[in-house]
Write a structure and sequence with these properties.
By secondary structure, the protein is an alpha+beta fold. The chain contains 9 helices and 5 strands. It is found in: Cytoplasm.
Length: 197
């Protein structure tokens, strides 16, 4: 049931490199999300790249090296290294989410009355795709989380992924076999977030 699936999906920060479902099943999931999740004006601005094996490892090495250059080795080891190594790089793969800005720019030119709305709608479409993939991975038995190590080595990440330089990196979703059940986070009461008239 959808409610159960929604309730079960959480961020997993302990992963091991194991395919709990076949790689081909994950590829099929991502393709299905791209083919079925709606977008404003059917614009389809989302692109995804599935990194596995050496590409997955190389991606997180790029991120790690960038963080060390910004924070320094000592601060990195004290504050961030464990998460990068045990929750992200330790998984079996990473899904990269990209936005194609030319799609939004084309819509803005074609529909000037809505021009200010298209960037917001593009963000909503990204969120829809990211949540759908996350839900799907969870239902397959993987643990995952949504990360935003963006703006440090994006050009290197795009080169590694083999994508167009104009694409914009939106998020990373490392996944793998979960080491433990993840706990839910406290939510605001519905009396504060939900209105019925």
């Amino acid at each position: 049931m959808l409610k159960d699936a929604l309730a079960h999906r959480h961020s997993h920060y302990g992963l091991r490199p194991e395919w709990v479902a076949p790689r081909e099943t994950v590829e099929d999931l991502i393709g299905h999300v791209l083919q079925t999740v709606p977008s404003a004006f059917n614009s389809q601005p989302v692109r995804m790249v599935l990194l596995t094996g050496e590409a997955h490892t190389a991606h997180w090495k790029l991120v790690e090296d960038a963080l060390i250059s910004i924070m320094g080795q000592e601060a990195y080891e004290a504050n961030t290294a464990a998460k990068i190594r045990q929750a992200f790089a330790s998984g079996i793969g990473t899904v990269l989410f990209f936005d194609v800005p030319s799609v939004t720019e084309g819509l803005q030119a074609s529909f000037p009355a809505y021009a200010a709305n298209f960037p917001l709608w593009a963000q909503q479409v990204q969120g829809s795709h990211q949540h759908a993939v996350w839900m799907g991975l969870d239902m397959l038995g993987f643990g995952a989380s949504l990360q935003h190590y963006i703006g440090m080595v994006d050009s290197d990440i795009k080169a590694l992924a083999g994508v167009d330089a104009s694409w914009v990196l939106s998020a990373q979703m490392p996944f793998g076999a979960p080491l433990a059940e993840a706990e839910g986070k406290e939510k605001l009461p519905l009396s504060e977030t939900f209105i019925v008239k």
